[in-house]
Design brief:
homodimer; alpha/beta; Helix Hairpins; Rossmann fold; 2 domains; four-stranded parallel sheet; two-stranded antiparallel sheet; globular; ATP-binding (chains A, B); tryptophan-tRNA ligase activity (chains A, B); phosphoprotein (chains A, B); coiled coil (chains A, B); uS15_NS1_RNA-bd_sf (chains A, B)
Chain lengths: 356, 356
């Protein structure tokens, strides 16, 4: 119970600072502390912290990982999506467990109003079904404050399949309707750390995957695609943000979130900081001119598991193939038109078509 | 005993590969495996592996750290040097425990012969008393193969005292007599991670400490001084080497060597890779033109503890002060002549006066 009280008190402290219009640094520090306490709470109780609702069962979770298998047979962590349930993963339960929010009709209406555009069918059909703090981004957008998009890809092979492209197709739509900068991180360092490949292979996958991403139709004037192996060594600001994040995250915390153990290499253990750094606009001084307060929206897949395709009947499979084939063929055609020069342009650190 | 046999077998394997002139990659891989096994051996037995001498006592060491306090009351790890023995730390025992070698008269003679110079009094008087593989460096040097020097400094305050300067004074002598490139790493990222200071403060200490180092008289055409916070983000090759090292070191290993625990931040845990990277010449493509086989000699202090000064008698103290004061005054005079422009020159990644 002690940790529950700590989170509650810290939550009050943050609200008080905001009400009293404290400096950004003070509020940020308090929020950071709050998030750390919430994480401790989750690790200790196995439950999301909810205002006014003490933990229903204070028995500590024995597992190292937050990604616990529950009664429904679902198992989801950053690398695995499995279920023993014939109906598939229960994503509504997952939203509760991950502490995110459902994208409801109200939010979709608000997006349409803010952008003056019909919502993408991925939103209307619930393909993108969960979010965190999108209302906050829309608050800013409605008062003419810009934000930026950050998404990424772990380049684990030369070819990206349709499932890998879904987040990029949706991201392109977001970029079009909101008219904002986009940064795309290719985590070739991560793939080198996790897989039995060389740095050279990982970087080669980055270049091939970048072609697939460009072929989704991104505007070169609004998009920066980067390889970690290449860009981190070109940006002192990025590395400085990595070190800042690394200072404020303990091994206990990454153990809890990612399930790392003592025999994991130190590269894996510190990797979460590399993936967090792009969510700070100061990691891209060439784009944001050193501004610290640009919010970031991260479109990403809660999982990338399409293996349940094998459960489909032959008839449904046929329809799907007929529908998908022209989409894939069009993508392949566009991909062939992506030149090395275009790849270089997208991957050059530079100012984009926005003034920050 | 099993681990003892494993090390012995792997040692034979390495010798066999060398005899059969296997490829560099094969030998390197085998050596890496051997070193890992030796480390395991040390962790399990608390003893250095010695050919033909099985462990005298196979009881596992319970401590996480190799830096165990022994009967003599000495405690030495990378951050602490303490002894409860009135005679001070027994460095001969330390050499045995660290698995390094004593700098003996034979080695000093060989250095004088190779360089054609009288050995520095720090060598003759045993101030620098321990080494690893210096004979290997001399073998190369005698066949006209160059090497380079790498040393560093954790910038923890604005002023460096005499003790901090000793390794640099000796390094300058090495550079002069061997005529080789020198890289100096200022680990401001480390100090930020370990201490309660901001990135800006850490970087400020770097600049001030760099002035002290330059004042030791280093040749700007042969010396590259760098801040981690600055240079890592200017060198993709350096970052790529960091990732390579991070992949091959586990948390268990750094736990054993540095005594890290689960509540340490992930920055500390992965930091050893940052400090190891400069010992690979490919981390400095501007200096070594991408060459992989340049050996590196690392002059460094086995400790930096001068607190036993308080045990000196007043008379001895007086003599020391009289001897040191002119040295310090001369250094201060030179330091005042170090301009911002000079600092910038030393800290600019560039080709040095050597052709690789």
């Amino acid at each position: 119970m002690e940790i529950y009280a700590k989170v509650a008190v810290q939550g009050d402290a943050v609200r008080l600072l905001k009400t009293n219009k404290a400096t950004k640094e003070e509020i940020d520090a308090a929020v950071k502390e709050l998030l750390a306490l919430k994480l401790d709470y989750k690790t200790l109780t196995g439950q999301e912290y909810k205002v006014g609702i003490p933990p229903t069962n204070s028995t500590p979770v024995n597992s190292n990982s937050l990604a616990v298998e529950e009664d429904d047979g679902d198992y989801v962590d950053p690398w695995t999506v499995q279920t023993s349930n014939a109906k598939g993963v229960d994503y509504d339960k997952l939203i509760v467990r991950f502490g995110s929010n459902k994208i409801d009709q109200e939010l979709i209406n608000r997006i349409e109003q803010a952008t003056g555009q019909k919502a993408h069918h991925f939103l209307r059909r619930g393909i993108f079904f969960s979010h965190r703090d999108v209302h906050q981004i829309l608050d800013a957008f409605e008062t003419k404050k810009s934000f930026y998009l950050y998404t990424g890809r772990g380049p684990s092979s030369e070819a990206m399949h349709m499932g890998h492209l879904i987040p990029f197709i949706f991201t392109k739509w977001l970029q079009d309707v909101f008219d904002v900068p986009l940064v795309v991180q290719l985590t070739d360092d991560e793939k080198y750390l996790w897989k039995d490949i060389t740095l050279e292979q990982a970087y080669k996958y980055t270049i091939e995957n970048t072609k697939d991403i460009i072929a989704c139709g991104f505007d070169v004037n609004k998009t920066f695609i980067f390889s970690d192996l290449d860009y981190i060594g070109q940006s002192p600001r990025f590395y400085q943000n990595v070190v800042k994040i690394q200072k404020h995250v303990t091994f206990n915390q990454v153990k809890g979130i990612f399930g790392f153990g003592d025999s994991d290499c130190i590269g894996k253990i510190s990797f979460p900081a590399i993936q967090a750094a792009p969510s700070f606009s100061t990691s891209f001084p060439q784009i944001f001119n050193g501004q610290k307060d640009i919010q970031c929206l991260i479109p990403c897949a809660i999982d990338q598991d399409y293996s349940s395709g094998k459960l489909l009947t032959g008839e449904l499979k046929k329809i799907l193939i007929e529908t998908l084939q022209p989409i894939i063929a069009a993508h392949q055609t566009r991909r062939k038109q992506v030149t090395d020069e275009m790849v270089k342009q997208f991957m050059t650190p530079r100012k984009l078509a926005f003034n920050f």
